[in-house]
Amino acid sequence: MNTARALLAAAAACACTATPALSADYPDKPVKVIVAFTAGGTTDTLTRSMSNALSKKLAQPFVVENKPGAGGNIGTEFVVRAAPDGHTLIVNSVGPIAVNASLGKLSFDPLTDLIPMVQIATVPNVLVVPPSSPAKDIKSFLQFVKTAPSLNYSSTGVGTSSHLSSYMLMDELGVEATHVPYKGADAVNDLLAGRIDFMFATIPSVIGQIRAGKLRPLAVSTLQRSATLPDLPTIAESGYPGFDAGSWFGFFGPKGTPPEVVAVINREVNAALPSLHAQMLHEGAEPVGGTPAQFAKFIRLEHDKWAALVRKFAPAAN
Fold this sequence. Notes:
D-Maltodextrin-Binding Protein, domain 2; 5-stranded mixed beta sheet
C-alpha cells in the first residue's frame, strides 16, 4: 500500500500545478457514469462517492447508472460504443479491464477501446466465512478446506479478482472447490445464509457485515495488510509468499475522448481524493490518484499478470 500513498501524494501535487488549456464548456450537460456491476458493490460505492464530488465541483450532475452482466462486459461495451465526448464514462475494475479478454473473445479490446483517465483506489480482497464456519482463523481455514468433502465459494463474476483469488488459493492448497458466480454484490447473500463456504470479497462490500459480526474475516489477498483491518494476516505471510490478488478501480472514457476532457476528470478526481481519504480508508479502499499515463502503465502490468494466470489455469478457471 506504500505505492498507493506515494501516488496519492503525487496526485495532490498534480492538482495544484498548471494544467493544459481545458474546455470551458465541459461538461455542458449531465454526465452518465456507468457501473458494470450491481448496486451496493465496491465499484458502485466508490463511483457514487466520486460522482457526488464531481457533480458539486463541475456544476453538472454525474449520474450513476448500473449495467451489470457478463462479468462487467455489458456495461464496459456500452461505454466503448458511446460517443467519445466525455458525457458517458465508466468507473471500472480489474476484471473487465485486465482479465476478461484473456478468458474469452470479446467484441472490443479494453486496452485500446477505452482511455484510462485516473485511478481512484486499490482495494484488498478479504477472505470471509459465515459465523457458522468451523474456520476461526486462517490456520484453521487452511486445515478445513484440506479435509472438507466439498466446498462452494462465491464471487462477483467469472474473471473478477474475487473469483481468481479463491481459485489461486485452492490451487496453492491442491484442493478443488465449486465456483458459484453472481452478478456483483449479490454474491454475499448466500454466504451470509451459510449456503456458501467462503468468499474473497472486496473490503468495502463486506466491512459492514464484518463489523456487525455477520461475517468472519480471516486474511487479505494483497501482499501488505489492510489499513482498515490491520490485525488480519495476508495470505502471503500465512505460508504462501507472493500471493497477491487485489482489486483496483478507476475512470475510463471511450477511445477518442478529447485530451482536454481526460485532463478535467483527472484533475478533479485528484483534487477530490484528499477530502475522501478518511472515508475511503474507513470503508476499506486506499486512494491512489496520479496521471493517466501512470494508470495506463499500471493497467498493462495488471493485464500481463492476469493473462499469465489465465493461460495457466483457464480450463478450470471457467
